[in-house]
Design brief:
The chain is mostly beta strands and about 110 residues long. Helix content is about 10%, strand content about 45%. The chain has a single domain, classed as Beta Barrel (Elongation Factor Tu (Ef-tu), domain 3), CATH 2.40.30.
């Protein structure tokens, strides 16, 4: 069962970023020539570094969701400027402590689970 990050209703900061890429198979043929092909039907790769600046209680809620998924379960989340939720995994995050608000940086990797 996927954890639902959207249900927490927190918007990441503008400093969040997406790093798209592709899984490519490459055969080097010599003399500078090569042949390339996409690796599978879901060759698009997408990694988000989402930054949340929220109250301590809200950050604790996000961390609780991430710890429940423990990097093994998928997390449902809708990235900024998109309308459809996608499946993600999170193997690590970092937290910066403030007085009333904390900052949480979460690395989310797109997953294509069934």
């Amino acid at each position: 069962m996927a954890q639902d990050l959207d249900a927490l209703n927190f918007t990441p900061l503008e400093e969040s970023r997406v790093d798209p890429g592709y899984a490519i198979l490459r055969a080097n043929l010599g003399d500078g020539y090569s042949q390339r092909a996409v690796d599978g039907i879901n060759a698009g790769r997408e990694t988000w570094t989402a930054v949340f600046h929220e109250t301590i209680a809200n950050i604790n809620s996000i961390i609780s969701l991430l710890d429940t998924a423990a990097g093994a379960e998928v997390i449902s989340w809708t990235p900024p400027r998109e309308s459809t939720a996608k499946k993600w995994s999170c193997e690590h995050y970092s937290r910066s402590y403030g007085i009333l608000h904390d900052k949480l940086t979460v690395v989310l990797v797109r997953e294509y689970d069934l």
